[in-house]
Design brief:
Order of helices and strands: HEHEHEEEHE
Shape: elongated
Radius of gyration: 34 Å
Strand order of the largest sheet: 1-3-5
Number of strands: 6
Largest sheet: 3 strands, parallel
Strand content: 5-15%
Length: about 150
């Protein structure tokens, strides 16, 4: 079979109606009717026209204010999550990712102070809250900012 052998199935295609070519085939009005908005050239109002109602793009509120596109968005981890993690040695973002605790390594990781730590953990993360750092060091571990 070659590309030249391909053709549409019988009855699946149809020639388009030739309009505006004399009185035998919708010649004068080309099937648009005599009068009205849509009979004119350029008469249709377009897809956003809502019949005289205030359109949606004017009903929406105006954008005001400032959005900081450069702010750092942290992945937050609580102390009780680190306690359940159960890994000896260094606790790093890569180790948390390998264990399935965090979803990706794009965002920096911040340790929050919710929960308790009873084991000495060497935590190496991007940021700590004051209470989290204090609790880790109180349990005999280290909190290092990477």
């Amino acid at each position: 079979m070659k590309l030249t052998d391909l053709y549409p199935a019988m009855g699946s295609t149809k020639k388009s109606k030739r309009v505006g070519r004399g009185p035998g085939c919708h010649g004068k009005t080309s099937g648009r009717g005599e009068n009205g908005q849509n009979s004119r050239s350029g008469g249709g109002k377009g897809p956003a026209f809502e019949g005289g109602q205030t359109p949606w793009y004017r009903r929406l509120p105006k954008f005001r204010g400032f959005k900081n596109h450069f702010k750092t968005i942290y992945t937050e981890i609580n102390l009780d999550t680190l306690e359940k993690f159960g890994e000896q040695g260094d606790v790093t973002p890569e180790a948390l990712y390998a264990a399935g605790i965090i979803r990706n390594l794009k965002n920096p990781v911040k340790v929050l102070g919710s929960g308790e730590v009873t084991r000495a953990l060497n935590v190496k993360m991007h940021a700590f809250t004051g209470s989290a750092k204090e609790a880790i060091e109180k349990a005999g571990g280290t909190a290092e900012v990477i």
